Amino acid sequence: AADKINLIPQDFFAELCEQIIQHLNHKIPGVNTAELCQRIQTSGIEINVGDLAKIANIVSFLFSTAARNNLSTEELVTTLGNAVSTLPKHAVQVIRHVWNEQGKSISVSEDARNMATVGQFVDIKWKLGVAMSSDTCRSLKYPYVTVTLKVADPSGQITDKSFEMTIPQFKNFFRQFKEIAAVLETV
Predict the structure, then answer these.
(1) Cα dihedral 168/174/179/185 (nearest 10)
(2) Strand 120-131 vs strand 142-152: parallel, antiparallel, or unpaired?
(3) What is the pLDDT of residues 35-53, one digit of tens each?
(4) 86-132 residue pLDDT tens
(5) Among positive and negative, which fits the CA dihedral 58, 62, 63, 69?
(6) Are 125 and 105 in contact (CB under 8 A)?
(7) How many Å apart are CA 50 and CA 36, to the nearest integer?
(8) What region holds the COMM domain (predicted)?
(9) What is the pTM of this model?
(10) Is there a contact between 144 and 131 (Cβ–Cβ < 8 Å)?
(11) Using H for helix, E for strand and C for coil, what is the string for the chain?
(12) Is the pLDDT of residue 3 over 70?
């Protein structure tokens, strides 16, 4: 991972670290590595989303472990120096700065440690479509709904999950959401 971190410019790495701290503080649902990766690629750097997600997981683990052990900035940098000799200098500088500025704000409560690891819903998008024809059928005229859910997994990575439904399935889906909304209003 250190060689991949070396590819990421300091400003993008700092933004990644900031987003991770915000995620650990429950201010944002997750780190949108796909969007950040696209911006890094646009700047001319060759990196894929999977590698960036691995880096985000490593940094997230680093920050959450440092928070759990209540490490000072110097203790974190010393530990990093002892454990990871191949970490680029600019990455260590960014980690030092971000941890020094915002590290103490990470709250590691017992409830957060014992919480079940489930994803967090971020956004939903849907669109109505009609399949006009296919290789095997000349005239389908079959309406369907495509739903895309944006979900942050427990590590903070934001992913899209898409699925298609028939109109009756979508009506049932919508009815269930209305039931959920009615129950939530009683809470």
Answers:
(1) -170
(2) antiparallel
(3) 888 999 999 888 888 888 8
(4) 677 888 889 888 888 887 777 554 444 444 456 678 888 999 988 87
(5) positive
(6) no
(7) 12
(8) 120-187
(9) 0.62
(10) yes
(11) CHHHHHHCCHHHHHHHHHHHHHHHCCCCCCECHHHHHHHHHHCCCCCCHHHHHHHHHHHHHHHHHHHHCCCCHHHHHHHHHHHCCCCCHHHHHHHHHHHHHHHHHCCCCHHHHHCCCCCEEEEEEEEEEEECCCCCCCCCCEEEEEEEEEEECCCCEEEEEEEEEEHHHHHHHHHHHHHHHHHHHHC
(12) yes
How is residue 133 written in tokens?
């024809």
The residue with tokens 């691995």 is 54
- Say if residues 156 and 30 touch (Cβ distance below 8 Å): yes
What is the mean pLDDT of the segment spanning 141-161?
82
- State the Cα–Cα distance between residues 8 and 45, nearest whole angstrom: 7
CA distance 146 to 137: 21
| Beta-carbon contacts of residue 147 (< 8 Å; ≥ 6 apart) | 124, 125, 126, 162, 163, 164, 165, 170, 173
Q: For residue 140, count other CB atoms closer than 10 A to its CB.
A: 13
Comparing CA positions, the residue from 182, 178, 140, 147 lying closest to residue 164 is 147
